[in-house]
Please model this.
Amino acid sequence: MNILWNADKYAKDFSFVHQYGNGVLELIDTGKANTAIDLGCGNGVLSGKLRDMGLDVIGIDSSPEQLAIARRDFPDINFIEADAISFEVNKPVDVIFSNAVFHWIDKDKQSNMLHSIHASLVKGGQLVFEMGGYGNNMLIHRELSKAFNRRGLKYRIPFYFPTIGEYAAMIEKEGMLVTYAILFDRPTALNGDEGMNDWIRMFIRTPFKDVDKETENEIINETAENLRNDLFKNGTWYSDYVRLRMKAIKP
Ligand code: BEZ
Model:
């Protein structure tokens, strides 16, 4: 997962990412758990909530920028810099929790991550997560793709958004048993008049890697304009999120 986060802007304008994490936390059976990993913990806000639920938490993230904020805001929590596809812990935990992270991992690396998760859970341990699911941000990616194509450029969606069936099969292949799964639409309000432009600038990085700044700005403005009909309602921009929420147990 390679992204250089603007951690302060992320915390200020995209706090909905952890606010929505609360619903995922409710899937954890705390009666059976003492220890947890927050995988892709970012700025640590949800690690703090796991701690407040009585769990002894380790936050894992690959971004030093995000971890600096997490360590500043939650000095009592142990945060470790590691990649989700290859992390290891000294002692297996009861719960692995993750919010809005797994879609950043390429499809061909997912089994590595699920393998690390399996190895880091105790027998009977719970994997509880939410990620972008099949069809996530379809309107945004479709308009970006058209704007790239109009300039003779190729656009590839830089995320992995699986169906329930596809992801459940991957989890079960790694030896865990899926006990809950839901795929649902969650249109999400963005902040400010420039909400869509800001969202694209924050999250869509790799497709613009070889595009000059002027063309990038043109593409972003044009994409936002073409999305206005569908995603700007009563003065507010919305992102067309689709969530995949799942729970699995290590038998
Ligand atoms: C998501 O949470 O679904 C998401 C966030 C940023 C980029 C892509 C997907």
